[in-house]
Write a structure and sequence with these properties.
With 237 residues, the chain is mainly alpha-helical. It has eleven helices and no strands. The chain has one domain.
């Protein structure tokens, strides 16, 4: 009985740790930095100094910026998508079955997905490969919510596009979309994930982190020095 009790308690904890590590490592891949480095540019010292897609597009041009954005989105999506595979690989006999992630309760499944997703965003924002300095997490968050809550993401994306079209500031669009996402998650009942309080709380936390990561943009907006969308990229140094 003591052994069984230990297994019941320890295996889920190890699963949470495993998906957190997997999510963080995927999210920590510094896409913008690597793409810029391949072109002989340290993106951290050019443009806004951010390694995300917006600065990559400004400094490296649209093709490179779009590539960085797609990969950053895929990091968040893959972190969640791989969660069942990670669980089944590490715990093939959980509940006495093979490959039985689906046998877990919906509550535990959701916790594992959410933990993988939030750590992917942490990895992007605080990558261990660049002394725990990274991007703002908008694209990676979009990848996470594309799998978990696509309709809520679609609402936030529409808000982002509309805001950018009106203001011509990507940073303003990102901040407003970050606020719109938890609102959508709270009120739109799309699937099992929307019934999970943890996801709602995590989404609010990610919103707060996104706004915090935009603090330099907010300062530039207040000073009137923030770059507008469509501005020609800076010449490579």
């Amino acid at each position: 009985m003591p052994v069984l009790a230990f297994e019941v308690i320890a295996v889920p904890v190890l699963a949470y740790v495993a998906v957190a590590v997997e999510g963080y490592l995927l999210g920590s891949i510094p896409t913008g930095y690597l793409v810029a480095k391949a072109k002989g540019i340290d993106i951290r010292s050019t443009g806004s100094g951010n390694i995300g897609a917006t600065n990559a597009m400004r400094v490296l041009g649209k093709p490179a910026g779009i590539f960085v954005m797609i990969v950053d989105v895929l990091k968040g999506y893959a972190a969640c998508k791989l969660t069942p595979l990670i669980f089944n690989w590490l715990f093939p006999n959980w509940c006495g079955q093979d490959n039985d992630f689906g046998a877990l309760s919906l509550e535990i499944q959701t916790r594992l997905y959410v933990i993988a997703g939030i750590f992917a965003v942490f990895g992007h924002n605080y990558t261990c490969w660049l002394k725990f300095k990274g991007g703002k997490g908008i694209a990676t968050t979009a990848g996470v919510y594309f799998l978990l809550t696509p309709w809520a993401l679609l609402f936030a994306l529409a808000v982002f596009i509309l805001t950018v079209l009106i203001t011509r500031y990507v940073s303003v669009g990102s901040i407003i979309a970050a606020i719109a996402l938890p609102v959508a998650v709270w009120f739109i009942n799309e699937n099992m994930f929307y019934e999970n309080t943890l996801l709602r709380i995590v989404t609010i936390a990610l919103c707060a982190m996104a706004i915090y990561k935009h603090k330099s943009n907010i300062k530039r907006l207040m000073a009137g020095t923030e770059s507008r969308f469509g501005k020609k990229p800076e010449a490579a140094k």
